[in-house]
Amino acid sequence: MKLSLFAVLAACLAAACTNSQVVDDQPPDGDATIFAVSTDYVSTGLASTITVPDLAVTQNAVDGVASTDPVVRRLGDRLFVVNRLGADNVTVLDPATLQLVAQISTGAGSNPQDVAMVGDSLFVPTFAGTGLVVLDLAHPDDGVVDTIDLSALDSDGQPNCGAAAAAGGKVFVACGLLDDNGDLSPQGPGRIAVIDASSHAVITDFALTNANPIGPFVAVPDLGGDLIIDTVPDYADVSQGCIERITTGTPAASGCLVDHSDLGGIATGLAPGAGSLWIAVTEGWDDQDYQPLGKVQSFDLGSMTLAGAPMTSAGERAFDVARCPTGHLAVADAAGGIRVYDPQGVELTTEPLDIGLPPIGGGLTCY
Length: 367
What we know:
The protein is mainly β. It has 2 helices and 27 strands.
């Protein structure tokens, strides 16, 4: 099947922006480590680090953990590199030493997208599967120990689940319900399935306001731990859709936190902390390289309003953002590297820091 450029772009971005990020608020001092995976989708990916605030870059800081299509998550005391299309595994690292803890297969052709962790259980949504696979971190050689079937959510039996987050003994899963027999277009509003983390039973599911949740799932302390996720009904019109809120106490969709029409584009990176939500906004795509054109904008979680002008300067091409426990912000720039800003939003870099290969959406964390 030959897909249109639009369909390929939609599938790529849908897969590139997933997960619930851990927020560690502490005073804006001390040191932090930015961990970033990068890829050109042809070469083997790289996993690199940048120390904050001295901005020392170590390219390929840990060898052989990133595939041609990786994303990274930090959950608890572990780093997870989810190697997606073609590699089909979750690689687990110790963030302090970058030593390998485990590499666990999610099954050939599964195309894993994200990971949520409850105890030693890893819940992994699979874009090409029927919902989620469950891995046991204590017994990595066992591979997939259970499958949670969400195929009933989608008429083609493949719900295209792309994000997962744990909250209150439950696992929340976002599914895109795309047309797997056609051009991967959304077939209605995205759905959230809620799983009991102990029994692996589906508790409930419900529709979002908009189609195509692309992630990341982000837990926001200032919203009582509720989750947010972006929705993109139509990549050709970035004014459609919004950042949606999901109540975690009594699970339910709670409408839009902020509309794309107000942001001026789609949210391809979310980083909460200190009363604010930092949003990487993709406003469109360059006609020459098809890479994102964007900015980082802050949203005040007290007044629920956009706060002032973008943090990034004109000409920068921000498409992802991560907040460090020191208050610094790491920003992925489509020009080919990582920019770093201090807790007041002043850029410490003069150009993107080279991490060996182009940064990828969902490929950035800081601890």
